[in-house]
Structures are given as C-alpha cells and as structure tokens.
Amino acid sequence: xxxxxxxxxxxxxxxxxxxxxxxxxxxxxxxxxxxxxxxxxxxxxxxxxxxxxxxxxxxxxxxxxxxxxxxxxxxxxxxxxxxxxxxxxxxxxxxxxxxxxxxxxxxxxxxxxxxxxxxxxxxxxxxxxxxxxxxxxxxxxxxxxxxxxxxxxxxxxxxxxxxxxxxxxxxxxxxxxxxxxxxxxxxxxxxxxxxxxxxxxxxxxxxxxxxxxxxxxxxxxxxxxxxxxxxxxxxxxxxxxxxxxxxxxxxxxxxxxxxxxxxxxxxxxxxxxxxxxxxxxxxxxxxxxxxxxxxxxxxxxxxxxxxxxxxxxxxxxxxxxxxxxxxxxxxxxxxxxxxxxxxxxxxxxxxxxx
Length: 354
Ligand SMILES: Cc1cc2nc3c(=O)[nH]c(=O)nc-3n(C[C@H](O)[C@H](O)[C@H](O)COP(=O)(O)O)c2cc1C
What we know:
Elements: H1 7-16, E1 22-28, H2 29-34, H3 37-41, E2 50-55, H4 59-72, E3 76-81, H5 86-90, H6 101-114, E4 119-124, H7 136-151, E5 156-160, H8 182-195, E6 200-204, H9 210-215, E7 222-224, H10 227-231, H11 239-244, E8 252-253, H12 256-280, H13 287-290, H14 303-310, H15 313-317, H16 322-332, H17 343-346, E9 349-350
Parallel strand pairs: 1-2, 2-3, 3-4, 4-5, 5-6, 6-7
Antiparallel strand pairs: 8-9
Flavin mononucleotide binds next to β1 and α10.
C-alpha cells in the first residue's frame, strides 16, 4: 500500500507472522528502470517471501522492471490493475488497464518471458457501472480478463471484490463506496479453475479480522489484507496458526510474554537498521519504523500513551544509539496494562468471539 507498506512496515509484519506473504507498495516500472533502484527495491532478507508490485502499462518497461525485481531477490511480481487514482489513470495504468485486457495479457506474457518467478495480477471486479452479480456480460468480461492472464502464464489473481469507479470517486471512496461482492469472486474462482485447476484466486477487500478470513477460508486460495493489517497489526499474530490449521484456529494471545517477545524483535530490527544507517552514512529516524507499529497496542489499556510516545518527534529525534533504542521501546510500553501483576486476567485470547 502506497506510503504504508514500505520495508520497515513489512519487516514489522514479518515479526508478527512467519508465513504471510508480504507485498511492496506499487512501484512504477519507470521508477525502477530509470530511478534510484536501491531506494525503490531494497528490502531486508527476513522479509521473504516478498512480492514486488509494479504499476505501468508499457510491456517492454514492465518486463524490464520485473526482471530487475527478480535480480533484486523478489519472490514474485504482481501487476497492479486495480488502482483507481486519477494520477495513475493519467499514466494509463492501474484499474483502467481492465479496459484493455489484451494489453494486460501482453504485459503478463512479457513479464513471464523476462523472469522465472511467479507472475500475478491484482484487479477489481469491474469498472464503473458494471454489475457482474446481475449482468452476465459484465461477469463474462471479468472472467475473460482472468482467463486471459492465466493463459499468458500468470499463476494468481488477487480480486479486490468491488468495482473501481474511475470518475467522481477518490481512491479512498473507491475502497468503501462500491459494494463488495464476495459471491462473484467465489464464482469466478470456480469458473477459472475449470480451465486452470492450479490457478490461485486470492480474495481482497473489507476483511476486517481473522474471523472474517476464517469464514471464507474454503472459498479462496488465499486472502490479501490491507487496512486491517495496517491499523490492527496484532491480528497477524494469529495468522501462522490460522494457516497451519487450515482456517480453523484464528484466535491469538496478546499477553505480557507475547508482547515482550515482539518488542525484543522490534528492538533487534531497529538496532540493525540503525547500524545499517551508520555504515551507509545516512540519517537514522526511528520514526520511520515506529509510525508503522502504532496500532499494535490497539485495544489495550494505556495504548494512547504508548502511541503518543511513539509519535512524539521531540522524543524520537533523541534516539540515536543502540542503547537508546532499547530504552525507548522499553520505557514506552511500561504503562501498558498488559504489564500488570494480575497477569492471568489480562491474558487475552483475542479474536475468537467475533
Ligand atoms: C493507503 C493505501 C494505499 C494503497 N496502495 C495500494 C497499492 O500500492 N497497490 C495495491 O494493489 N493496492 C493498494 N491499496 C489498496 C489495498 O491493497 C486494498 O486493495 C484495499 O485497501 C482493500 O483491501 P482492505 O479492505 O483489506 O484494505 C492501498 C490502500 C490504502 C488504504
């Protein structure tokens, strides 16, 4: 997610779940070819498996960027055909690419030929007034779109299960206003599998907690979680168990031990980033890490104070040594109610009652 899922965000999410597949924000193919590659592409080796998402519509550029992505160590390349922003439309990529399935097919083919890692596409259920739930032509339109990318060698689509409205709605509204149609996405998966049994269809859009994921477990090959993972990252603590149990166990503990274990890993990660900055002679801002973890204490008493400390720039500026990194995190969490003597009562099994 643009401005959100940068390398620090992904490294934090990797601390919470070993098995989740992490995605970069959309990176313009031109930025990769002509821009500062390291700035756009560098990631921590612990992030694997990690997918590079590309934006663009020029097959040659997309193929080149995909190939660079593979050389950089990414595990998969995803093409964005779902972003409705006007800026992206002006560049003729994102969701408006759904209007040009032949061009998308050519891009997929070019990426396939330029790499030997999996290629995938993220898209919407349709554009503007289309209604694939009620109009067979609109359904056939999106089914053909998926079949085409499967034919060209993509191994997966992620369906954001609502339309993109290209005129009149902001990107934010485009994530809430068009109705979610999980049933259509489910049917599309069944229909695509008739011709491509190994093809994966991932559901995205509006999944807010682990109970939501578990409810749809058997109907999809996977789930992409955006806003909920960012705002309430603690749900990721339950994901490895969720995956290992085939969608059955989706609760997770957020107690003192779990918190301390996560906190220790955050400290270790932050210290190693600090060392990297020192080596590269670049400024270290702990705020570029803490901004992604503000939601971790969501729901715990004392969370507000914790969030305030983690975003107080006067405090953050002073954190400029490995020791002060440790002191900072340890003192910030001191007032969370999770560290009460009355531990048993505070051992939360979160997420099971939804
Ligand atoms: C701030 C923000 C940035 C986003 N950037 C991207 C992006 O770069 N690529 C992409 O495929 N989707 C992007 N999205 C859309 C999400 O990936 C996702 O499709 C959408 O939010 C619906 O899923 P959710 O309900 O789980 O959040 C973004 C969403 C947000 C809120």
